[in-house]
């Protein structure tokens, strides 16, 4: 597995672990206090994490562009340039798909918990 994909998976896993920890902590606090607004508020944190994860594609695209421009300054042949462009495009596509899916999932889950989490205590 290429280094970039492995580090990307660690980032996504870290976001999911943080999200589960936030929801679990808020659910425990809500159950302990009887105030289910804590669970609802955890949804706001998930939504923020989802926004950060989804917006990372902008940062990745910017870094890829800067790296590509740097490599273009040292071009020593058309074949190298074509290979570099193909590799960069493939890596950007993979990164964007993973980040978009994970960020979108966190946005949906976070928004649902944020909007309806306080109703769990009324069941």
Descriptive overview:
The chain has 123 residues and is mainly α. The protein has 3 helices and no strands. Helix 1 runs antiparallel to helix 2, helix 1 (3-33) packs parallel to helix 3 and helix 2 (37-72) runs antiparallel to helix 3 (78-116). It is rod-shaped and about 70 Å long.
Quick recap:
The protein has three helices and no strands. The chain has helices at residues 3-33, 37-72, 78-116.
SSE run: HHH
Q: Helicity level, as a percent range? A: over 70%
Radius of gyration: 20 Å
| Tally of separate helices | 3
Q: Which spans of ≥5 residues are poorly predicted at pLDDT below 50?
A: none
Largest sheet: none
Calculate the terminal CA-CA distance, rounded to whole Å.
Answer: 46 Å
Structural class: mainly alpha
Mean pLDDT: 77
Shape: rod-shaped
The proportion of strand residues reads: under 5%
Number of strands: 0
How are the elements arranged and paired?
Elements: H1 3-33, H2 37-72, H3 78-116
Helix pairs in contact: 1-2, 1-3, 2-3
Key traits:
0% strand, 86% helix, mainly alpha
